[in-house]
Write a structure and sequence with these properties.
The protein has one domain: GroES chaperonin (10 Kd Chaperonin, Protein Cpn10, Chain O, Roll). Helices cover 3% and strands 28% of the residues. It contains one helix and eight strands; from the N terminus they run E-E-E-E-E-E-E-H-E. The strands form two sheets. Strands 6-7-1-4-5-8 form a six-stranded antiparallel beta sheet. It has a two-stranded antiparallel sheet with strand order 2-3. The longest helix is centred in the last third of the chain and has 4 residues. It is globular. The two termini are 22 Å apart.
Length: 129
């Protein structure tokens, strides 16, 4: 990744949408950043709005809801709403407009952890502004 491709906290303009669900204890909801690529004849152009396949979604987003649970190691000093996080590629439970019509087209909500994991298994790091 060259310097012009590096993602910094100032690049994070993640439009938030309402999430009409309540997480279970130990669960974290992350709204993923919108895609930053556009296909033009098979060539991807950075910075162009588009709806592209899930495999091209960014692996960073913003925590929009969570349910603290000391039994699951999820406490306010570890993670909170509005934290900017990087997540493991292809991890978490994914929801899109196809599953939930309240999610805007081309956007994605991920839920962590997946069964058998802890929230730390899917969320790689938390960025400091």
């Amino acid at each position: 990744m060259n310097e012009s491709q590096r993602v910094t906290p100032t690049d994070w303009e993640v439009p938030i949408f309402p999430v009409p669900m309540i997480p279970l204890p130990g669960r974290v909801f992350v709204i993923m950043a919108p895609p930053r690529l556009k296909s033009d004849g098979g060539i991807y152009l950075e910075g162009q709005d588009c709806a592209i396949g899930s495999k091209h979604q960014p692996d960073y987003g913003v925590v929009v809801d969570l349910m603290y649970s000391p039994n699951h190691g999820l406490t306010p000093d570890r993670l909170k709403v509005d934290d900017k996080v990087f997540v493991k590629p292809f991890d978490g439970a994914w929801l899109t407009h196809r599953e939930c019509d309240w999610i805007p087209e081309g956007r994605q909500l991920r839920i962590y952890p997946t069964p058998g994991d802890t929230w730390r298994d899917g969320i790689e790091c938390i960025l400091e502004d």
